[in-house]
Amino acid sequence: MRCIDLFAGAGGFTEGARLAGARVVWAANHWPLAVQYHQTNHPDTWHECQDLQQADWRAVPAHDVVLASPACQGHSRARGRERPHHDALRSTAWAVVACAEYHRSPVILVENVPDFEKWVLYPAWRDALRRLGYAVSPHLVDAADHGVPQNRQRLFLVCTRSRRPLRLSLPRRTHRPIADVIQWDAHPWSPILTPRRSEKTLRQIAVGRAAHGDRFLIPYYSSGSGLTGRSIHRPVGTITTRDRWAVIEGDRMRMLAVPEARGAMSFPPSYVLPSVHRDAMHLLGNAVCPVVAADFLNELRLAA
C-alpha cells in the first residue's frame, strides 16, 4: 500500500502507515521544522516543504491512499464555541479536493476535530468530493478506545471511489492509564506552595489529592477535570499544542514532559522530536495518533 501524507506535521499518519506495513512515498508540510523532523524519522519518504494550495500535483507520485490532516484550528472549539474564524486555516482542506481531482486516488483518509463537520463550507467540500466520485463515510473515534493512553476525540472521513460509503469495523482495546508513560524522575519539578501559585490551583490540588491520593493530574487551560483533577489510572485528556496538564506528586508539581506527551500520543520512545519544549508540544498537539492511523489503514487493507 503506497500512501502520500498531506499536512504531514510530526508524522503521526506516516508512523501509523509504517505500523500498518504501508509505505509513505511522499509527504508535505508548510513548516520547515516539521519537515525537518519528519525527514529525520522517515528518511525513505520524499519530502516537500510547501503550501499545498500552491502544490503541483503532477509532481506527486502514484499512490493508493491519501492521508490528510488539514489544519484544525479554524474548526476547534478551543477558539470559542460561537466565534466564527475566517482565515486561511479553514481553506487548507480544499487541497484534499485538488489532489483528488488530479490523481483520482483510490482512497482518501482525512482526520480532523469533530467540529470540522460544522464548518460552514463543509457541505460544499463534501459535495466536491462526491462529484469526483467519492463516497464519504464519517467515523468519530476516541483514541483511548484504540489503546492510546489519552482521551482524544477525532473525526476520520473514509473517502472511497465506491457507490456506497465504506463503514470500517475498527478494533476496540482496553483503555490504558496515563501512568504507563509518566516518568516520575523527569524534571523540572517545582514546589506546590509558592507565593505566585494561584488560590484556584491550590484548591484544585487539595480536592484532587482528596480524590486521587498523592499522584494525579490537573488541567491548566480547560474546565474538564478542573475541580477534582484526573486520576493517573485512566487516560489523560486531550494533548494540545501548549502545556495543558500538570503532574502532581506529593508537595511538588510540573507540566507533562515531552517524552510523556509523546507516549500519550502513541509515538514510540525512539521517535525524534525538537529539543525545544514548545516546538515539540506544538508538533505533538497537532499530530494524528499513530496507533489510531494504523488501525484505519489495517481495516482499509482488509476491506480492499
TrEMBL record:
Similarity comment text for this entry: Belongs to the class I-like SAM-binding methyltransferase superfamily. C5-methyltransferase family.
InterPro entries: C5-MTase, C5_MeTfrase, SAM-dependent_MTases_sf
Coiled coil: none
EC number: 2.1.1.37
Keywords: Methyltransferase, Plasmid, Restriction system, S-adenosyl-L-methionine, Transferase
Entries under SUPFAM superfamilies matching the protein: S-adenosyl-L-methionine-dependent methyltransferases
Reactions mediated catalytically: a 2'-deoxycytidine in DNA + S-adenosyl-L-methionine = a 5-methyl-2'-deoxycytidine in DNA + S-adenosyl-L-homocysteine + H(+)
Species of origin: Denitratisoma oestradiolicum
Name the UniProt record assigns to this protein: DNA (cytosine-5-)-methyltransferase
Enzyme class per UniProt: transferase
